[in-house]
Design goal:
The complex is a heterodimer of chains A (about 160) and B (about 80). Chain A is an alpha/beta fold and about 160 residues long. Chain A is built from six helices and five strands. Chain A has a domain of about 110 residues: DsrEFH-like (Hypothetical Protein Ychn, Chain: A). In chain A, strands 4-3-2-1-5 form a five-stranded parallel β-sheet, sandwiched between helices. In chain A, α1 runs parallel beside α4. Chain A is globular and about 50 Å long. By secondary structure, chain B is of the alpha+beta class. Chain B has one domain: TusA-like domain (Translation Initiation Factor IF3), CATH 3.30.110. Chain B has two helices and four strands, in the order βαβαββ. A four-stranded mixed β-sheet of chain B has the order 1-2-4-3, with helices on one face. Classes of the chains: A alpha/beta (about 160), B alpha+beta (about 80). The interface between A and B is medium-sized, with 11 and 14 residues.
Chain lengths: ~160, ~80
């Protein structure tokens, strides 16, 4: 049986949105898929040497809050960091893997990580900001793999 | 009693960690050997069935006891 292929485009750079690409990629790799994650725009945050993503309730009315809070209060300085800290604590208590752990598992399983060259340039990132060993490419690079993939996800 | 070759305690771990840990443990075993997995994530029940189906390993036992889930996975 030929190896199945999963292609993911990761476009989001918040703490919560960083989970789906890494969870799906690591699990697919464990199931025997060949996997590539093409990171573009804010998804480049997934490739930073030190990930420092935050979760915010602003513009996200679906986020369960421990206590109801007016939107203006949610925007106060320090709230975003506090929410991120609380979310991390909650995840830890529930046995949810950290992003660092999931990313490490992806790398171990040879998930290929690709940084979108155009957005790297756009945001003035340098390769030093990112993990060693990742690839850089454009849309055509992505389609080379995605065109042969069994599953292709835009996250 | 020990009708398995290796044991993996994935208690307290949530999706997808039990699967990923099991995959890793199986990687170090040889065909025909059996991995005993303990988990507390209720989602693991369906996930291990799906994992077995897609990887060619055989799930020979899946049971719940006292809020924990026990699996026997035979490496294919």
């Amino acid at each position: 049986m030929a190896e199945k292929k999963l292609a993911i485009i990761a476009t989001k750079g918040s703490f919560d949105w960083a989970y789906p690409p890494f969870i799906l990629a690591s699990t697919a790799a464990a199931l025997g898929y060949e996997v590539q994650i093409f990171c573009t725009f804010y998804g480049l945050q997934l490739l930073r040497k030190k990930m420092d993503m935050k979760v915010t309730s602003i513009g996200n009315p679906g986020m369960p809050m421990p206590v109801p809070m007016p939107v203006l209060m949610q925007a106060l300085p320090g709230m975003q960091s506090m929410m991120t800290m609380m979310m991390k604590q909650k995840m830890k208590s529930k046995g949810v893997a950290s992003l660092e752990e999931l990313r490490e598992l992806c790398i171990e399983a040879e998930v290929k990580l690709i940084a979108c060259q155009m957005t790297v340039d756009l945001f003035d990132f340098s390769p030093d900001d990112f993990l060693d060993g990742i690839e850089y490419g454009g849309a055509a690079t992505f389609f080379e793999f995605a065109g042969e993939s069994d599953i292709c996800l835009f996250i | 009693m020990a009708d398995f070759d290796q044991e993996l305690d994935a208690s307290g771990l949530n999706c997808p960690l039990p699967i990923l840990r099991a995959k890793k443990a199986l990687g170090g075993m040889s065909a025909g050997q059996v991995l005993h997995i303990i988990a507390t994530d209720p989602g693991a029940v369906k996930d291990f069935e799906a994992f077995a189906k897609q990887t060619g390993n055989e799930l020979t036992e899946s049971r719940e006891e006292g809020g924990k889930f026990y699996f026997l996975m035979k490496k294919g």
